[in-house]
From TrEMBL, chains A, B, C, D:
Keywords: DNA-binding
Keyword Membrane belongs to the record: no
DNA-binding region as annotated in the record: 30-49
Record-annotated HTH tetR-type domain positions: 7-67
Source organism phylogeny: Bacteria, Bacillati, Bacillota, Bacilli, Lactobacillales
Gene Ontology molecular function: DNA binding
Protein name as it appears in the record: HTH tetR-type domain-containing protein
Domain of life assignment: Bacteria
Length: 197, 197, 197, 197
DNA sequence: AATGAATGAGTGTTCATTCAT
DNA sequence: AATGAATGAACACTCATTCAT
C-alpha cells in the first residue's frame, strides 16, 4: 500500500481533503467524507495513504511545498537584505490572496499537529518559511530587525498577511479600500529596529 | 436538568474541559473524556449542561468573563488614550502570563464556533476585548493609530502577546532574557501612526 | 412509596401520560416527558408509582374504569336482550365520540402489554367490556348472535365504533354525512344470526 | 453504504427484525437486538440500511410485497364482483393463516409510521390492499356493498380475518371447531347491502 | 488498483431507577 | 412529599481500519 500508482487519484484525495479542512475543524474531517467527495470507496484511501494521519501529513506537505515554490518563484531578486525581505513579504501576500485555502489549511494542520510530527526532515520542507526565517535571522544579526524572538517576527508577518487576505476574500473590504501598502508599513514598523526613529 | 445546584461539580466539569481543550482540538474533546477526568459518570454531565455544545459555550463564557474581569481590574487609570492603551496592553500580557490556558482555550473555541453562536449578548460579554477595541477605535479617530482594519491592530496585539507568553511558558526563554518591553515596543511601532517618525 | 398522599398530582401524572400515549407509541413515552408535562421532577413520579410499568398499568386501569362507568351510566334499561345490546352499542359510540383519547390509549396499552399483565383481577375491571361480553354471550346462547368466537364479535363492534369516531374526530366526514345508524346496521348485520333473513 | 451486495445477510437482517417486531412494540426493537439476533456487529446493519427508519421501511415493503404477491397468486379468477370479493377474502385468510407474523408486523408498522412515510409510490405497493379497495369501491358504486366509509369495510374484513387466524394460531381453537365459513358469513353480512333481507 | 463487507471502539444523548436530603 | 444528583445501561449512529476478493 501507499504506492502512488495512480498519481491523479492521489492528488484528488489530497484536493478533497484540503477543501474539507478549509471548511471544518481538522478533527472533523473523516475519510468517509473525503472518499465521498472524490467519488471513490472509503477503503481506497488506504491504498494511497497508510492511515488518516498519514493523509493529513501529506496534505500538509503538499500545501507547504506549493507555498514554498510559489514564494520562491514570485519573489524578485534584490541587492540588499531589506529589498529581499520586502520582496518575500509581497510574494507571501500574493500567495495568501491567490491561495487563501492553502494558507488556511496549513495553519489549521499546524495547530492540530506538532511540527515535528508533521515533517520528517524539517530542513528541506517548509522552504518558504525557511527562506523567510533566514532573512529574518540575518536581519537580526545585522541589527536591521528587532531583537525579539524570531517567532514573534514571523507571527507578525504571517498573521497580518493572512488576515488582510482573508478580509478581502470574505468581502470585508476591497484591496482598493485597504491597500496592502498600509499592511506592509505596519509590518515594517513592527519588525524594523526603531533606531531609525 | 441543567440546574447548577452543585456549583463545585459544575466548575469541576468546566475545569476539566478547559484542560482538555488546551491540549487537543476542540472537536476531539468528548464528554467521555471530560467525565473520566472529573471522575463522574458520563451521563452526569447532562445534568449540568444540556449539550456538548452547551458545555463548550459555558467554558467559553467563563473564560472570557475571567479575562475581562482580570483586565478590568488590572489596568491602571490613565489620563490620555495612549496611557490607557499601554495599560491595557500590560494587563493583557499579565493575563496571558498567568493564565496561558485560558487564552489558548478562548482562541481555540473562537476558531471552532462563530462568535454569535457562543454568546447571547455580544455586547456585555467579552468586555476585555471590547475595551481594547474601543481604545483602538478612538485611537484611529484621533489619528494616533494606523488606518488599517481594526482586526489587524487587534491581531498584532493579541497574537504577539500570546506568543510571548507561550514562549516563556514553554521555557523557550525567560522573561528576563526577552523582556516584555521589546514586545511592547514592537506592538507600539506596529500600531502607532508613523507620522511621528 | 406509591402512597397516594396527594391525589391531585396522582391524577395529573396519569393525565399527562394519557395525552402522551395518545400521540406516540407507548414505548416512546418516558417518565422524563411525563414529569416535564406535569411540571414536577422526574423522580417525583416514583413516589406515586413504583416504576414505569406500574404507571402504565394505572393509566390503563383508570381509563378502563372511566369507560365502564360511562357506559354503565349511559346505557338505558331495556326489556329484551337486543334492546340492551343496542343500548350498549350507542353508549360505546358516545364514549368513543366524547373520549377518543381514552379509547385510543386503552387499545394502545392493550397491544403493548398482555392483558394478564395489566390487571390483577380481570373480573371486576374492564366492566364496560365485561357487560358487553355478558350480553354477547347471552345472545349467543339464545341463538340471537352468530356462533363465532366471542373475540370476533367484540372486535367487530369495538373496532368499527372506534373507526367511525376517529374518522369524525379527524374531520374525514361529519356525523351528519355518515350517520351512526349505518355503522350500527353494519354491526347488527355482522353480529346477528342470519337465520332471520 | 446501503449497497445490497450480499443479499443473504440483507434478508437475514430483515428476517430478524420481523421476528422482533412480531413480539414487541416497534419502538422497542433496537438495532442492537437485531444485530445480536443475526449474529453480526451492530454497525454492520448500517452497511445495508442507512437508518433504523430505513430498516423498518424496508421490512414493511418486503412484507407488504410478499402479501400482495401471495394474494394476487392465490385468488382465483371470478366472473362477477361478488365472486372476486369472496376470492380475495379467502386469499387474505390463507395468507393470515400461513403468515401470521407478516400480517402482524405490517399492522404494527402501519400504526407507528404514516403510510406516506413508508412507501415512495403508494400505488404500486400494497397491491393486496389496493386490489381489495378497488373491489370494495366498485361494490359500493354498484350498490352491492354498504354506503359507509371505505375504512370501515376494510377494517371489518381485515381485523376479523386477522383475529380468526391469530386465534387459531394461538391454539384458542382449531380451524375445524370454528370454520372460516362462519367468519366469511359475518363479513358478508356486515359488508353487503341489507336490501336483500 | 479498487471495492464491499465487516468490525470494535467511539460519539452524543436519553432513560429508568435510586438515594440522600 | 418532593427534589436534585447520580448512575449504568441502552440507543442510534459514525469512524478508522482491515481483509478477502
Amino acid at each position: 500500500m501507499m504506492k502512488k500508482k495512480n498519481p491523479e487519484k492521489y492528488q484528488q484525495i489530497i484536493d478533497a481533503t484540503v477543501q474539507l479542512i478549509d471548511r471544518q475543524d481538522v478533527a472533523m474531517v473523516s475519510t468517509t467524507q473525503v472518499a465521498k467527495k472524490v467519488g471513490i470507496s472509503q477503503s481506497n484511501i488506504y491504498i494511497y495513504f497508510k492511515n488518516r494521519d498519514d493523509l493529513i501529513k501529506h496534505v500538509f506537505i503538499r500545501e507547504v511545498d506549493a507555498m514554498s515554490q510559489f514564494v520562491h518563484d514570485t519573489q524578485v531578486p534584490a541587492t540588499d537584505l531589506f529589498g529581499q525581505f520586502a520582496s518575500q513579504l509581497d510574494a507571501l501576500f500574493q500567495f495568501a490572496l491567490q491561495h487563501p485555502t492553502s494558507l488556511n489549511v496549513i495553519q489549521k494542520i499546524l495547530r492540530s499537529y506538532s511540527y515535528q510530527h508533521l515533517v520528517a526532515k524539517p530542513d528541506d520542507l517548509n522552504a518558504a518559511n525557511a527562506e523567510l526565517l533566514v532573512t529574518l535571522k540575518k536581519g537580526q544579526q545585522t541589527g536591521l530587525f528587532k531583537q525579539v524572538d524570531l517567532s514573534l517576527l514571523q507571527n507578525t508577518i504571517l498573521s497580518n498577511i493572512k488576515l488582510q487576505a482573508d478580509n478581502i476574500h470574505h468581502g470585508k473590504y476591497t484591496a482598493a479600500e485597504q491597500p496592502f501598502e498600509r499592511v506592509r508599513q505596519l509590518i515594517f514598523d513592527a519588525i524594523l529596529n526603531g533606531s531609525r526613529s
